[in-house]
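User: Could you write out the 3D structure of this protein bound to nicotinamide-adenine-dinucleotide? I've included everything you need below.
Assistant: Certainly. Input first, then the structure.
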Amino acid sequence: MTTKNILVTGGAGFIGSNFINYILSRRDDYVIVNLDKLTYAGNLENLKPSEGKKNYHFVKGDITNNELVDYLFKKHSIKYVINFAAESHVDRSILGSEIFYKTNVLGTAILLEAARRYEVEKFLQISTDEVYGSLGSTGLFTELTPISPNSPYSSSKAAADLAALSFYHTYGLPVVVTRCSNNYGPLQFPEKLIPLMIINAIGNKKLPVYGDGLNVRDWIYVIDHNKAAELVFDKGLPGEVYNIGASREMTNIEIIKLILSKLGKGEELIHYVKDRPGHDRRYAIDSSKIRNQLGWLPEFKFEDAMNNTINWYLANRIWWERIISGVYQKYYNEQYNNR
Ligand code: NAD
Ligand code: DAU
């Protein structure tokens, strides 16, 4: 069996840990070295299903550490990279942007340079639909929509995305880029809309809705995203960008009311608060390229996947209680007390 030695970065976060657990449950041909700094968002508990596997190695470290990155490429004969590592939360980028530019831009550049030195055979950059900016009430983001990010987070991701593509054009590095819409599912850190609302509703706490609650996001279950990422990693053409989305647009208030009704809670918990500065109005993805060219299709029905997600948070209180009782509390107070 030929194996692929893959450096996966940010694999202790929400999407990366779901990716590693999913991949290692069914593939022996991938050897994964997971490089993660274990920021507030990284959690080794997420990787319990993969721990102890012969083809899985964890390294605590920073993608901006040039020496460490170089050492890992050499030590593990890395020929493939999947870059999930990022500061990922828009609200935090509004509180302070520096770490976003450091990790997301400089970190990606350091990985790209190492990939070039070690003649990597595929570099998958996990980008986001937020690089396109915001839509009005009609239209969809295609891969040809101009890049026009609006937040420090999305501008840092856009810079990383374009840096990756520039390494294809300039050096012929076999880079592929995915731009996915909003994910939800198990193991998502409870600063993001869906887990935050589930946890607050379980605890009968107020549900903070930004602005008028009519901003639209296009939701995809994390496993569907990861199946698409695996497909792009295996079959995506170098230099190409692939949008990923499940065509499930919802306003925030619709999502929140759905969560309340599934948990049997009343709408009196809904609490309208000051809007997010620069809040993008609507995201919606045209994913026909990955569907037509690579044969991807989302498999999970929104209703079923939302039930799975809510049930997961109900069954895994210990996981999120540990988070919300720790340093997260300081961020939560800062974010919501004066809104
Ligand atoms: P997350 O915040 O849950 O996880 C990020 C992980 O990266 C954490 O484990 C963290 O410890 C690690 N990390 C942060 N800085 C690092 C550094 N300097 N060096 C090494 N590791 C570091 O994020 P997520 O929601 O899982 O997102 C993963 C990727 O997917 C990100 O690149 C994000 O931009 C992208 N993305 C996310 C979504 C979404 O809806 N969550 C949608 C599209 C794209
Ligand atoms: O579109 C992909 C992006 O989706 C990813 O690149 C980001 O990493 C990810 O964080 C996510 O960004 P959003 O800003 O869309 O996600 P968030 O969960 O923070 O917010 C979703 C919507 O809900 C947004 O319109 C803001 C609103 N919101 C969010 C929070 C946390 C609220 O109304 N109240 C809240 O408390």
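Residues 9-10, 12-16, 35-39, 41-42, 62-64, 84-88, 103, 107, 126, 128, 157, 180, 182-183, 189 surround nicotinamide-adenine-dinucleotide (ligand 1) (CB under 6 Å).
User: Perfect, thank you.
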